[in-house]
Amino acid sequence: MPAPKQTKRFAFALSGVVQGVGFRPFVYQLAAKHRLNGWVRNTSAGVEIEAEGAGQALDAFSEELTSLNPPQSVIKTFKQTEIPLTGEEGFEIKPSQSLAGRFQLVSPDIATCTECQKDIFAPRNRRYRYPFTNCTNCGPRFTIIEDIPYDRPLTTMKNFKMCPDCQAEYDNPLNRRFHAQPNACPICGPRLWLADKTGTELSNTDTIAEAAKLLQDGQILAVRGLGGFLLAADATNPQAVATLRNRKRRPSKPFAVMLANLEEARKYCSISKEEEHLLVSPAAPIVLCRWNKESPVCPETAPGQNYLGIMLSYTPLHHLLLKEINKPLVMTSGNLSEEPIAKDNDEALKRLCNIADYFLLHNRPIYSRYDDSVVMYEAGEKRVLRRARGYAPYPVQTHFKGKEVLAMGPQEKNTFCLLKDGYAFVSQHIGDMQNPETLDSFEETLAVYLKLFRSKPEIIAADLHPGYIATALAEEWSDRLDIPLVKVQHHHAHIASCLAEHGCDDEVIGVALDGTGYGLDGNIWGGEFFCGGIKQGFSRQAHLEYLPLPGGEAAIKKPYRTAVSYVYTLLGEEGLGFFKDIDPEKLDIIKSQLNKKLNSPLTSSTGRLFDAVAALCGICRVANYDSQPAIELEAEAKDTEFAQFYPFELDLDKGIYLIRLKGILEGVLSNIKSGKTAAYISVKFHNTVSQIVLDTCRKLSAESGLTKVALSGGVFQNRRLFRQVIQQLETEGFKVLTHKEIPSNDGCISLGQAVIAANQGGL
Amino acid sequence: MDKTKILLAHGSGGRLTHDLISKYLVQSLSNPLLNKLDDAAVFKTGGNMAFTTDSYVVSPIFFPGGNIGKLAVCGTVNDLSVMGAVPKYLSLSFIIEEGLDITVLEEIIQSIAAAAKEAGVEIVTGDTKVVNIGKADKIFINTAGVGFIPEELDISGSNAQPGDAVIVSGTMGDHGIAIMAQREGLNFKMAVESDCAPLNGLIADMLKACPRIHVMRDPTRGGLATTLNEIAAQSQVGIELDEESIPVKPAVGGACDALGLDPLYVANEGKLIAILPEEFAPKVLSAMKAHPYGVDSAVIGRVTAKNPSRVSIRTPLGALRILDMQSGELLPRIC
Ligand SMILES: [Fe+3]
Ligand SMILES: [Mg+2]
Ligand SMILES: [Zn+2]
Ligand SMILES: [Zn+2]
C-alpha cells in the first residue's frame, strides 16, 4: 500500500487522430491496468484525461499512452500537467464536450478489421453475414461525420437506435465496440436490399447471394459502399466489362479490380512485399500491381496496361459479395465519365439507371463523397496517385502557423486545401471542375471541411490561369469575404507542394514535368526548371523550347496534331512527308493554322512532347483519357533497358536555358523510317527525358551551388521515367525530393498554392 | 489626282465631300429626312423608344455572305429588334482610309441601301471622315438606330424564368468562321457563308405568335455561350443546353473541328436566342421555321432554378459540362 503522499493527479490533453479509433477504451483499460482513478473524454480539440494514483503507476500510464496507443490513432500533441487531488473513486468515460473554435483531426474510413471479418463469417455470431458490421478499429468515419466531436448523434447513424445488445457493447469499456459510433447489428442497424433500375425492391431471402448470381450472369450492379456507389461487373467476363465501358462512356481508361483477399490477388498480379502491405493496410487503397496477363482478368479491364489497379474488399458488404461470387470484380466509381461519384440512393437511381442493371442499396446515409484512393509503390516508397478514401482528411503538417489559407486548386484532378495552425488539410480528390456536378461536390465538400476544422479563411489562393473555374470561384470568395486573393503559378505550386510535403524550407532546383499550366508569360508551361523555395520564391532557369499547340485543347485530345506541329515547326515542310495517312486537307489546315498562329498557343509542356512521340510511333493518335499517349508509350517499353538517348541541346537565351528538341524529333523519325520498334523508341525517348533532367540539373547546380532537387508534375507518374530520373540524379550526388502522400499530378496543386500564399501573406 | 480613289479632301467638308454625299449617299439611300441634308434629322416619337449604336471594323470588309455595309445595318437593326423594338431610323457614319477605291465604297453603300430596304429602316443622318493611310483599315462604319417598342412587350436579359425554353433561330458560328476563313485564307472543303441578316421580320412573326417572350438576344461576339452566360447572370438562373440539339452547319462544325474551336463561342450576325415560357415554344418555333431566317430554329435547352448564373451543356456522351465565359484567348485547361 503506497503512502498517501506519493499519490498524484495529472491532467493530460492529447490531439491528433484520437477519436473513432478506440482511444477512450484504450485509456480506460490502461487506467484499470495501473489502478488509476479519474476520467477520459472527447472534446472537439481531442482527448482529455485526468488520472489520479500512485506516482509510479502514473508515470507508466503516461509513457504507455503514447507507446501502446491504438493502431489507427496518431498523437500529434501531448500535454501533461500536475493538478490537485480530488480523491474520486473509479475511472469513468465522460460525455464528449464541444469547445468553441477548437478542432481536431478526423479519422479517414478504415477497412474492415480481421476480427469483424471473423464475425461476419461465423454462423453462430449475431452479425453473421451482416454487411454493416464494424468496431472501434474499423468501419466508416469521415464519410458519416456531420460534425465534431465524433459522437453518434453527430453522424449519419443518429437515426438508428441501438438494440439492447448493441447498446451493451457500446457501453462496455472492455468491448471492442465500446463507443464504436457506427455500431449496429441486423436487429437495429442499416439494411441492405436489391432493387431494379426503377428502384423497386426485389423480394428475395438472400440479397448477397442474389446479387452474386446477377454478377455471375454478366449483369452490372451499382453497389452502394462507403463514400458512394461503385459499379461492379465480373472482371473475367469480357462481355460484361465491354458493356460497362460502353454504358459508362469510358472506352479505354483502366478499371480497378476488387479481390476477396491477398491470396486471390496473387492469382492475377505479382505483388511485392511492399505492395502487399499497402493492399492490407487500413486504408485499403487501389494499388497498381504488375498484371499477370495470362490470368483470367480480361484484357478489356485495363487495355494497353502492364499494371492492374487492384484492391481488397474493404467493407463487410464487399467481403460477403466477393466470397459469394468467388471471382475478381471490376469496381469502378459510380458515375458517367467526368461526373462525381453518386452517393445517395435516389441520385444513383437517376444517374446510373442507364449504366447499372441492378442496384445494391442501403439506408446508412453517406455524408461525404469519397472515391477510392489509388497508390503505387515506386522508387522505394508508397506514392499516392489519387488521394481519397483512407487518407483524406488526414493533414500534411507544415510550419505555416499564421493566417488561415483556403487554396482552391486546379481545374482537373481538383483538390482544395485548408491551411490552419500548421495543418494543411488537402481535401479528397474532387475531380474535373468543368463538370457542374463536380463543382457542386466541391462546394459541398468545402463546406464540410470548413465546418469540421472550424476554419475561417483569411487568404484565398488560386491558380493564375484566367480560365480555371476554381480561380473564378476564388475571385468570388475573395470578394464576398473581403480577403486577399493570391494567384500562384501552376508549376510554382507543384514544386512548393513537394517541398511542403517534406517540410523543406531550403532553396532547391525544382523540376516540374507536367501536362499544361498557365505560365507567367501567358504561354502554356510544363517542362520547367526553377531555382528557389517556398520562402525565397521561384525563378525559371530552363524550360523545353516553346512549340505551338494547334487548336489548343484539340491538340491534347488528338495528339497527332501536336506531332504534326512539332515536326513541321522543327523540321519544316519535308518532315510532313511522314504524315501520309492523315487527310491532306486536315494537314493543310493545321499547317495554315501554324503559319498564321491561329488558336495555336505556345507550350513548353513535357506531356505534349510525350504525346507527339507517342503519336509518331502510331501508339495513340486520339486520347480517350488524360495522359493516355504517355501511359501507352511507357507500357510499350516493357522491361527493355539500354542506355542510348536522342540528342538535344541546352541553349542559353536571355539568361534562361532553352532545351532544344529538334534532335529528338529527327532521331525518332529516322528510327521509325529505319524500322525500329515502338518499344525501342520508347526506351530511348524515356532515356532522353531523363538525360535532359540530369544535364539541366547539373548546369543549374554548377551555377547556383544547389544540390537538392524537387520533382513534381503529372509526368512523374510515369514509373520508368520517375525511377530513372531519381536514380540518375542520386548517382550524381543530388538529394532528390519526391511526392509520397500527395500526388505529383494536379492533386497537389492546392497544397502548393496554400503554402505559397501563406508565405506571401506576410508570415 | 486619282479620281478612282478616296482622297483626304473627300472628308474635308468641301466640294469633294459634297459630291460624295450627294452622288453616292443621298442617291442610294434617298428618303425625305435624309434628303433635307440638315444638321440633324427631326422626327416625331411616342411611347417607348429604343436607341442603340455599334461600330463596325470587320476585316476583311468583303466576305462570303456580305460586307461591312450590310453588317453595319443588320447589326444595329438586330440590336433594336431583339429588344422588341420596331427599328425605324438609322444614322450612318464612315471613317475611311485615304486611298480606298471609290468603287469599293459604292458597293458598300449599295449593300447598305439594300439591307435598309429589306429591314424597312431609313438612314436619316450621317457623316464621313477620311484619315491618313494607316490611321484606319480601309473603312470603319458606325451606325446608331432608333425604334419603338409596343407597350405590351417586356423583353430583357433579366427576364428569364426557370422552366422557360431556350430557342435559337438557326445554325451557330457561320459568321465568325466565314470571316476567319476569308481573312486567313483557309481552304476548307466546304465553303462557309456569313449569316448576316436583318432579323426584325422574323421577330415580328415571333411576337405575333407569342408576345410573352421573356428574353431575346443576338449572339454576336463571343457566340451563343457568352450571350447565354450574360443572360444567366442577369436573370440569376441556370441554363442547361443539350449539345445535340444545337444546330451547326456541317461545314462550320468541320472547320471548328479542324481549328480546335467551339462553334458555340463563334460570332453570329443573323441569329437570335429567344427565351420564353415552355408552353409557347411549339407555336413560336413553327412561326420561326416558316420565316426564311428561321428555318433551322430549334429548342436547345431550358432555364433552371438550380445553379444560378451557370450555363451547362449535356454532351452527346451524356455528361454535363460547364459552358463558361471565355476570357480572351482560348488556352488549354485540360492536362
Ligand atoms: Fe500540373
Ligand atoms: Mg450594339
Ligand atoms: Zn472491426
Ligand atoms: Zn443491434
TrEMBL record, chain A:
The keyword tRNA processing does not apply. GO terms for molecular function: acylphosphatase activity; carboxyl- or carbamoyltransferase activity; double-stranded RNA binding; ligase activity; zinc ion binding. SUPFAM superfamilies: Acylphosphatase/BLUF domain-like (SSF54975), YrdC/RibB (SSF55821). It catalyses: C-terminal L-cysteinyl-[HypE protein] + carbamoyl phosphate + ATP + H2O = C-terminal S-carboxamide-L-cysteinyl-[HypE protein] + AMP + phosphate + diphosphate + H(+); an acyl phosphate + H2O = a carboxylate + phosphate + H(+). Gene3D superfamilies: 3.30.110.120, 3.30.420.360, 3.30.420.40, 3.90.870.50. GO terms for biological process: protein maturation. Keywords: Hydrolase, Ligase, Metal-binding, Zinc, Zinc-finger. Residues 205-390 form the YrdC-like domain. The active site is at residues 24, 42. InterPro entries: Acylphosphatase-like_dom, Acylphosphatase-like_dom_sf, Acylphosphatase_CS, Carbamoyltrans_HypF-like, Carbamoyltransferase_HypF, DHBP_synth_RibB-like_a/b_dom, HypF_C, HypF_C_2. Its EC number is 6.2.-.-. The keyword Ribosomal protein does not apply. Residues 9-95 form the Acylphosphatase-like domain. Pathway: Protein modification; [NiFe] hydrogenase maturation. Belongs to the carbamoyltransferase HypF family. This is Carbamoyltransferase. It comes from Dehalococcoides mccartyi (strain CBDB1).
From TrEMBL, chain B:
Coiled coil: none annotated. It holds the Pfam family AIRS. Gene3D superfamilies: PurM-like C-terminal domain, PurM-like, N-terminal domain. GO terms for biological process: protein maturation. Belongs to the HypE family. The lineage of its organism: Bacteria, Bacillati, Chloroflexota, Dehalococcoidia, Dehalococcoidales. CDD domains: HypE. This is Hydrogenase expression/formation protein HypE. Residues 161-311 form the PurM-like C-terminal domain. Residues 38-148 form the PurM-like N-terminal domain. InterPro entries: HypE (IPR011854), PurM-like_C_dom (IPR010918), PurM-like_C_sf (IPR036676), PurM-like_N (IPR016188), PurM-like_N_sf (IPR036921). It comes from the Bacteria. It comes from Dehalococcoides mccartyi (strain CBDB1).
